[in-house]
Amino acid sequence: MMLTAQVVEDLLLRLSEPVLEKELVSLAESLGRVLAEPISSAVDFPHWDNSAMDGYAVRWEDVAAPLSPAPPSRTKLTVIEEIPAGVRPQRSLAAGEAARIFTGAMLPIGADTILIQENTERDGDSLQDGQARRIEVLQVPSQQGEFVRCKGDYATAGQVLLAAGIRMTPAMIAVAAAAQCPQVWVYRRPQVAIFSTGDELVTPAQPLAPGQIVDSNQPAIAALVRQWGGEPSCLGIVADQPADLREVMAGAIATADIVISTGGVSVGDYDYVEQVLAELGGELQVTSVAIKPGKPLTVATFRRSGKSVLFFGLPGNPVSALVGCWRFVYLSFQQVAGVAEPQLPWLTAVSGGLLRGDSRRDCLLWGRVTMTDGQMTFLPVAGGHNSGNLINLSLANALALVTVERGAVPIGELVPVLWLDL
Length: 422
Ligand code: AMP
Ligand code: MG
Known about the structure:
Elements: E1 2-3, H1 5-15, E2 22-26, E3 39-40, E4 50-51, E5 55-58, H2 60-63, E6 76-83, E7 97-101, E8 113-116, E9 120-122, E10 127-128, E11 131-132, E12 134-137, E13 148-149, E14 160-162, H3 170-178, E15 183-187, E16 191-197, E17 201-202, E18 213-214, H4 217-228, E19 231-238, H5 242-255, E20 258-262, H6 273-279, E21 283-286, E22 288-289, E23 291-292, E24 298-304, E25 307-314, H7 318-337, E26 346-351, E27 355-356, E28 362-372, E29 375-380, H8 390-393, E30 398-402, E31 408-409, E32 414-419
Parallel strand pairs: 1-22, 6-7, 16-19, 16-20, 17-18, 20-25, 23-28, 26-29
Antiparallel strand pairs: 2-15, 3-14, 4-13, 5-7, 5-8, 6-12, 9-12, 10-11, 21-24, 24-25, 26-32, 27-31, 28-29, 28-30, 30-32
Helix pairs in contact: 1-7, 4-7, 5-6
């Protein structure tokens, strides 16, 4: 039965189970890994009140402009110490006093406002070691607390800064580093077994006889799995023979978290994948999905040690195989990897041309999203859009979705696009 893409998505999220094993990795190794334990900090952020500018730490009451009667003569303040970043202030401010301070430096007790240096003038007669002993206030700060980053403004001690189930990005690594976590707990990488089926296939290193083609799916899918943060294991090319398929499939199901095969899921005489899955005790969940390219999609589940193993039988056509991974396998993969909220990277772009769909299946057109005249614009890549054309697929950075209901997307209209540059 042909299912809609949405039904397949929901099914995949219900069927996929997260790996449970955790490992401790260094912060440097945590990029792209999924956090298995939340990260919090023992201290507030900022750790203490500090200055956001170079200038003088002052007491608001000393510098605030009196509302009445007439403006007084300019305020003068005595500079009692200099506080560079990283140095603990030695004195607290009393009335009429200021401390020279620099960006990031700790405020002295008593100070509550920063007077930026541009709004001051050195009192010329009071130099000592080239530093002003007195300053004159040229312009009053606009409010109490101006240019002070207050202790705990960004986060308080004990608060969760990074939740379990997020995939570590460089900015998150900054947070973990600031929280003084040189090592973090992550889920182990999902093991993804990959093989290609087809009597016509040779490896990229083998000579090509007439009628043969190179297995391009396996290296592409292995690379994709690596990009997602998984650990691919390539099982090679399997002949269109039930016995050969059975052996490789049984081995993969016994060891991997996810198995991906390409080829052999259409209705041809040599398409044995479904048959062998059933023989091995797999529960067939999906056999076809209403998208183009990629209609023949086989998903089966197996139980192993109380957990589910997902088998994806993708079509052999190179475009269909990759589209199947981007559109469906990635969701399952995230769930298996421990991602708390698996999501596909959908964006909205303006169509830069007429996008023609199909009357029976939702179409995914491969093309490029670029920033053009201030707008995210999608244009299909040039050349034939058939599922065998892996050459122009390589130029794409996004897939535009033209649903059956829309039929076509005129130039200038918004269209959902699946972003591929992860
Ligand atoms: P199939 O899904 O097995 O019917 O294959 C559909 C088309 O994809 C055929 O033209 C195959 O030659 C081609 N094909 C199958 N497997 C691969 C592969 N691993 N790499 C590149 N092309 C493939
Ligand atoms: Mg085949």
